[in-house]
Design goal:
It is built from three helices and eight strands, in the order H-H-H-E-E-E-E-E-E-E-E. The protein is an alpha+beta fold and 243 residues long.
Length: 243
């Protein structure tokens, strides 16, 4: 019976260097084909890794598609809101223009209404003066080449006065008509400015005449805009007091 030569021999521990030397001494190189297959397998991703990668790609594509759709929708909504904003701006501009034109018309109508009210008041004043128990009048005749005529009515008790004109054209730009009170040989006294709208004439109220019983005549002259304290322009109408 053979005996193991190692029996009875004291076992010794091998260090790491001795083990590596022993492995190199007895190692057999792997075949080239086997080595290539192992490397190919190592380089090929695992089935689970491929599925995960495919899932990530699909998710990325879905997210990209959703993002593109949202961008398209947001762009359409933005374009629609911009168009609405332009339309609203145009509507607001049109309304502003209409409001401006309406304001001008209202202002013109207000001035016309004020003129009508003033004319009505003047007509009423003339009727009141004509029907009064104490009234003096002065018929104004044109002077020179001027056409037109007038009549002044004054309440001798209160001094309320009005003038009725006809055929007298409106004053030129920068000019106005002014009424004058004449008391005998004294200097003419300003009795108010006269605004003539058109040649058709009409009744115009004038300031109260102080001490009407002393008045002997009335006159109308052309003066600078705003009037004058003494006559500076040509006298176009004049007439003595009667009654």
């Amino acid at each position: 019976m053979a005996t193991d030569p190692t029996i009875g021999v004291e076992e010794r521990e091998l260090d790491d260097a001795a083990l590596e030397a022993l492995a190199e001494a007895y190692a057999t190189p792997a075949p080239v084909e086997l080595r290539a297959r192992v490397l190919a397998i190592a380089a090929t991703p695992a089935e689970g890794d491929t599925a995960a990668a495919d899932l990530r790609v699909r998710r990325a594509r879905i997210v990209g598609a959703i993002a593109a759709m949202l961008a398209l929708v947001c762009g359409a909504l933005l374009a629609r809101e911009l168009q609405r904003g332009r339309e609203r701006s145009a509507e607001i501009a049109a309304l502003v223009g209409q409001n401006g034109a309406l304001a001008v018309r209202i202002d013109e109508q207000g001035r016309a209404l004020a003129g009508l009210r003033e004319a009505f008041d003047a007509q009423a004043e003339v009727l009141r003066l004509v029907g009064g128990p104490r009234v003096l009048t002065a018929t104004l005749a044109p002077q020179g080449a001027v056409t037109g005529a007038g009549r002044v009515l004054v309440d001798t008790g209160t001094g309320d006065a009005a003038i009725v004109l006809s055929g007298l054209a409106p004053a030129e730009a920068g000019k106005t008509y002014e009424l004058w009170v004449i008391r005998g040989k004294n200097a003419p006294e300003p009795a108010g400015l006269i605004a003539v709208a058109d040649a058709r004439g009409g009744a115009i109220r004038v300031p109260r005449v102080p001490r009407p019983s002393e008045v002997t005549a009335f006159a109308v002259s052309i003066e600078p805009h705003g009037g004058s304290p003494t006559p500076t322009g040509p006298v176009i109408l004049v007439g003595p007091v009667a009654g």
